[in-house]
Amino acid sequence: xxxxxxxxxxxxxxxxxxxxxxxxxxxxxxxxxxxxxxxxxxxxxxxxxxxxxxxxxxxxxxxxxxxxxxxxxxxxxxxxxxxxxxxxxxxxxxxxxxxxxxxxxxxxxxxxxxxxxxxxxxxxxxxxxxxxxxxxxxxxxxxxxxxxxxxxxxxxxxxxxxxxxxxxxxxxxxxxxxxxxxxxxxxxxxxxxxxxxxxxxxxxxxxxxxxxxxxxxxxxxxxxxxxxxxxxxxxxxxxxxxxxxxxxxxxxxxxxxxxxxxxxxxxxxxxxxxxxxxxxxxxxxxxxxxxxxxxxxxxxxxxxxxxxxxxxxxxxxxxxxxxxxxxxxxxxxxxxxxxxxxxxxxxxxxxxx
Amino acid sequence: xxxxxxxxxxxxxxxxxxxxxxxxxxxxxxxxxxxxxxxxxxxxxxxxxxxxxxxxxxxxxxxxxxxxxxxxxxxxxxxxxxxxxxxxxxxxxxxxxxxxxxxxxxxxxxxxxxxxxxxxxxxxxxxxxxxxxxxxxxxxxxxxxxxxxxxxxxxxxxxxxxxxxxxxxxxxxxxxxxxxxxxxxxxxxxxxxxxxxxxxxxxxxxxxxxxxxxxxxxxxxxxxxxxxxxxxxxxxxxxxxxxxxxxxxxxxxxxxxxxxxxxxxxxxxxxxxxxxxxxxxxxxxxxxxxxxxxxxxxxxxxxxxxxxxxxxxxxxxxxxxxxxxxxxxxxxxxxxxxxxxxxxxxxxxxxxxxxxxxxxxxxxxxxxxxxxxxxxxxxxxxxxxxxxxxxxxxxxxxxxxxxxxxxxxxxxxx
Lengths: 353, 414
Description:
- Chain A: Pathway: Cofactor biosynthesis; (R)-pantothenate biosynthesis; (R)-pantoate from 3-methyl-2-oxobutanoate: step 1/2.
- Chain A: One of its GO terms (cellular component) is mitochondrion.
- Chain A: InterPro entries: Pantoate_hydroxy_MeTrfase (IPR003700), Pyrv/PenolPyrv_kinase-like_dom (IPR015813), Pyrv_kinase-like_dom_sf (IPR040442).
- Chain A: Keywords: Pantothenate biosynthesis, Transferase.
- The structure is a homodimer.
- Chain A is an alpha/beta fold.
- In chain A, helix 7 (159-170) runs parallel beside helix 9, helix 9 runs parallel beside helix 10 and helix 14 (315-327) packs antiparallel against helix 15 (331-344).
- The longest helix of chain A has 21 residues, at 2-22.
- Chain A is elongated, with a radius of gyration of 28 Å.
- Helix content of chain A is 49%, strand content 10%.
- The first copy, chain A, has an eight-stranded parallel β-barrel with strand order 1-2-3-4-5-6-7-8, surrounded by seven helices.
- Chain A has helices at residues 2-22, 45-54, 66-75, 86-89, 101-114, 133-145, 159-170, 186-189, 199-215, 227-236, 257-261, 267-270, 283-299, 315-327, 331-344, 348-351; strands at residues 58-62, 79-82, 119-123, 151-153, 174-180, 219-223, 241-244, 252-255.
- Chain A has 16 helices and eight strands.
């Protein structure tokens, strides 16, 4: 008995000690009410660091609303990124440029409500952090304060970006960098074009990644670069790299939710599915089939059947209802109601026996 | 020739009749070269015709571009941007928290995706109850900024009927909504079915009729017993759209996420409405896919070569390695070099070919199966030269390539 007591004590103290150092939430959440906050459940920077050290790949997927966040949480994905890719996959624009900060914050909040375990990273959308370092810090603050995120991601490796990243880190906000193909810069890039394919570009990828590390980033996303370039950057950095279209030598991988699920089966969309993305399901097909079946069942008067028409009115009330309808002069309605009641209760005919 | 002229004329006049049916200007000269196809969008007239013929109208909710595209592709009649977004998209427990600005974002995304269904936008809680002018202002924004074709508002109190009338007079089509009105759970005491006693049942019919009187083109009946819905449907000239209201309505509506079984988490399973049929288990499909992705990344199986398409030419790579070394990144340089080798299985293929040579020199001959396998291997890597070499080898060995040989080559090389 004493032994088990000692064991539970040490377990408790272990929980207290480790949680305190690992969590990004205060140890006691007295105002949180009876709901157990479970701070040690949330993936933290330290856990990512450990995975990186052990060579275990980090998994990251984008989410934009409550259901997708719940799905990512349930599947045990490490990091949930509320990406500005929402502009394309949720809002249907052709680029990531049109989405505003207000819209991103709405997405962030919905995701925060759904994903309790993955680390939450919010993208800074185009136009909200490039003007000045002040603007960048203000935006990052809103993403954490109003969006409920744990960290932010920003694109690019120009000197002003490195400075911005540094200021955001100094403001106490964890930053994930993003180099290679940076979709917000398609204007200068001339489209969604892979980077790092020539010497200068390849060296730039490595150098900017290192500068971002120097600025205090905890991780860097490498997008659409040849695998050897990604391998070089991953090797040169102490922090983990998260790749997308960058080959298998990164410390982790990220994919867009809709792309990996095959959400858009429409031929128009099939041609814009990125070649580096594997479709792990054909959700678009499943949805299409379900909707067609619903349409068919409604059109043929099959749905709703009795099992999906659960609400009843007691026969006494029904009779009163029919009388009232007749008083109002709605005789046709009264007989329609009476007929339907009979149709819904096929046992009446046998009950008179 | 005369008959074809007549046919052309009648086709032309039919096109003119489209003008009367569409809710878009006939010519969209500013729309540019994209054909506007005004007769593609479902209109109130289409719905009226369906109702007259007794053909059930299908309605499903959508909240973003992909769901809108899905509804369009499936040929659903009406796409409702519901304030149910508050629950299924934003994860709140009720429909109350969503704001008009958030609804407008949903509306715009849906408008971008659904070109054929009639688009109806819900007026969210708190944006139309104060006064008729507030109601009209909100409805105007939903059409102007949200890109919707019509609006839906809840309730049948006198002020709501007045508001509905004012909105119709502003030129905006309105769908009414009676029975369980989720925005009113405060007075209803929860999501409780209505029309289960005489007074309530009569009220459902009366308010539906009042909304028709005010100019609504349709009324949603939510969570009422089927006989009550049947009475209302019979009493009205406009179509009723039911949800949890039995099979006697003029049409049906369901929430996208509910009908697709989007939420498989146990916590959500218990809040799936009993009147909703799950036509799929999308949540399960998604869960399975995400777990597989997680597994493949963790085991370093993804991305494989077929999902690592971006290449750097050998000369650029060499220059890159040199630059890295100049910068003092020797470890990085060797990582890059071995990565490049790893990604280029040509070394392996080259070894395979060399092995073939060795075995042939040793006097071993290959059968058709072996040649087919090698052919497939090389074709997969687009090694056209090696494939042709194999084919000539086979010829020398006196083997005829069969359909499988060609199929493998065709499948992979193309």
